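We examine the record.

___
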Amino acid sequence: MTLDVSTNPFDDDKFHEECAVFGIFGTEDASKHTALGLHALQHRGQEATGIVSFDGKEFHAHRETGQVGDVFDKNRGIVEKLKGFAAIGHNRYSTTGGDMVRNIQPLFADFEFGGLAVAHNGNLTNALRLRKELVKHGAIFQSTTDTETLIHLMAHAQGNLIERLVAALRRVEGAYSLVCMSRKKLIGVRDPMGVRPLVLGKLSEPSKDSTAYILASETCGLDIMGAEKVRDVLPGELIVIDEKGVHSQFPFPKMAERFCVFEYIYFSRPDSIVEGHSVYTARKAIGRELAREHPVEADVIVPIPDSGVPSAIGYAEESGVPFEYGIIRNHYVGRTFIEPTDEIRHLGVKLKHNANRAVIEGKRVVLIDDSIVRGTTSRKIVEMIRAAGATAVHMCIASPPTTYSCYYGVDTPERSQLMAARMSHEEMRQAIGCDTLTFITMDGLYRAMGHTGRDPAKPAYCDACFSGDYPIRLTDFGDSGGQPAQLSLLREQKAG
């Protein structure tokens, strides 16, 4: 079987969060802080990065493919040229065909009121329809991102900056966290359901007798520079930061909150505090619940690094079975290590993971992972564990079966490629080659998050990738979500 590899042949069997956003206002080192914040948020997007700053007179920008440390390496002197007291930045993960330089954010546009830089995390699910309408009325698009749709909607609206932004956002559907920067303002806004995360922080600089305010996708983007979390930006909230301080408004109709539960399972960094919950603690709780639901006669609990580690610790604590690092990850396998031929794809797991025979040989092993997408990596890891001498391999997954694609800002395969969507439970077990295969139940997942279970009439989270219950209309896809596209990229077709 040939795999359809999007970016990294060694990570193709995982979901990928589309991007991270960061903004800061009120410090002379705005771009340096932004680069640090983006570095901490690297896990949310590794394909490209960019920063736009403003120094009181001019905007400065640099956008480039690559990771933050490479693009903004101090030896290149780029950050020093991005002068200003305010800056916003963006990390991006792209799917196939969408990694052009012109798609790298933040995007920048000149309006009647002046320049505006925009960085966006999420997907607009009616962007194609709006794009067609805008083109019909004379709009000329320079990128294939849905973020540019927002810019054109603002250009066609009336009023000042905030009025235009609100008017544009009232026309869009989807999940989003936005950070925008004008000559005088830093703006943050979340969609009314709060699907994607955004936090407000502040950085006190006693030596300069000043306080800078920050907007970031996760709290780890604050921690890296010693900033303090003020609070989460609320669903449907629009925050304006200027020289007078922080101002808040709620310009959209109130809706039931549906934060993405996969942020706790996989996307967010474990040291982040998301929506008031420690991600690390949540993952341990999921592991404990998984152990209660699916006890297994075993000798050792082994996580699939790195995302499976906290859940494996929780499982071990609850079950009393020892936790061991039975799989060692090579953190230095890069995306350009070697050309991703079919042969190299086959070697991918061994290049990235190796079995620790000393703790596996002769043991009944429980493997803990966050999710199963295509199942290709799971199968190879089970083979590797058996080859290392395990007498039995039980796989326990810290999420329910992934049976539906995400259209709210996550790069997922089309549904026909999701293992749980095309196979029965037993067929999955046989294909992976493990002795038993178990998933946490939906109610178990909700219990781990502090609820009594999932209320189907009013779910506390967006869990559409498990349930098919899409809380936001999929206008561009049909209500079934049947079209295999990622709207944050509005995929281009390559010639030839």
Q: What stands out?
A: Confidence is low (pLDDT under 50) at residues 1-11, 335-340, 484-496. The first strand starts at residue 16 and ends at 17. Residues 16-258 form a domain with the Glutamine Phosphoribosylpyrophosphate, subunit 1, domain 1 fold (CATH 3.60.20.10). The chain has 17 helices and 25 strands.
